UniProtKB/TrEMBL annotation:
Family: Belongs to the MntP (TC 9.B.29) family.
PANTHER family membership: MANGANESE EFFLUX PUMP MNTP-RELATED
Membrane topology recorded in Swiss-Prot or TrEMBL: Multi-pass membrane protein
Gene (UniProt): mntP
Signal peptide residue numbers: 1-19
Membrane-crossing segments per the record: 35-58, 70-89, 109-129, 136-163, 169-187
HAMAP family in UniProt: MntP_pump
Source organism phylogeny: Bacteria, Pseudomonadati, Pseudomonadota, Gammaproteobacteria, Lysobacterales
Function: Probably functions as a manganese efflux pump.
Name of the protein described by the UniProt record: Putative manganese efflux pump MntP
Any matching Pfam family: Mntp
Protein localization: Cell membrane
Key words of the record: Cell membrane, Ion transport, Manganese, Membrane, Signal, Transmembrane, Transmembrane helix, Transport
Length: 190
């Protein structure tokens, strides 16, 4: 694979995480660069690991992962999106405001990162059949995702000022829409 192809794979694999990060950034109370970098790091690491896992799984499980990746991604994104919508409809309290201002828990960030990287695992499986250096591809995917998530959270902050209190509602809708788009893309192709 040439460097441009590897970069394009990295950018393509980071788009779902970017959309989720915009929603997360919009829901946060005054996100700071360190918070955005933390989220970017978590998403980037998860997104870099999943193609390696897929590559290691290889041909033995390729049919299973390719058959279900879109359903898994949709379920995780929809569940996270519904949770965000539910939270946006609850009265504001100090605990929710504190969590939002801190960027959420590490576990929630990791789950969101996993939800947006299921397709990267399927890409990893397909790369098992090609003569590639999976470590280089995983590194590029991770770096692209790190950058896109960090930017997404900071852009979400600006959008959050415009959207106001219902920013988390918008973030939840975005997550559900991303999950539905993944599902539609895979079901329409099959």
């Amino acid at each position: 694979m040439n460097p441009l192809s590897i970069l394009l794979i990295g950018l393509a694999m980071s788009t779902d995480a970017f959309a989720a990060a915009i929603g997360k950034g919009a829901a946060m109370t005054r996100p700071r660069l360190p918070q955005a970098l933390r989220a970017g790091l978590v998403f980037g690491v998860v997104e870099a690991i999943t193609p390696v896992i897929g590559w290691l799984l290889g041909t033995a499980t390729a049919r299973f992962i390719e058959a279900w990746d879109h359903w898994i991604a949709f379920a995780l994104l929809a569940a996270l999106g519904l949770h965000m919508i539910w939270q946006s409809l609850q009265p504001a309290d100090d605990e929710v405001a504190t969590e939002a201002s801190n960027g959420g828990s590490l576990l929630k960030l990791a789950i969101a990162g996993l939800a947006t990287s299921i397709d990267a695992m399927a890409v990893g499986v397909s790369l098992a059949f090609a003569d590639v250096h999976i470590a280089v591809i995983a590194l590029v995917i991770g770096l692209c995702t790190f950058t896109m998530v960090t930017l997404g959270i900071m852009l979400g902050q600006a959008l959050g000022t415009i959207i106001g209190r219902r920013a988390e509602l918008a973030g939840g809708v975005i997550l559900i829409a991303v999950g539905a788009a993944i599902l539609y893309e895979h079901l329409g192709a099959g």
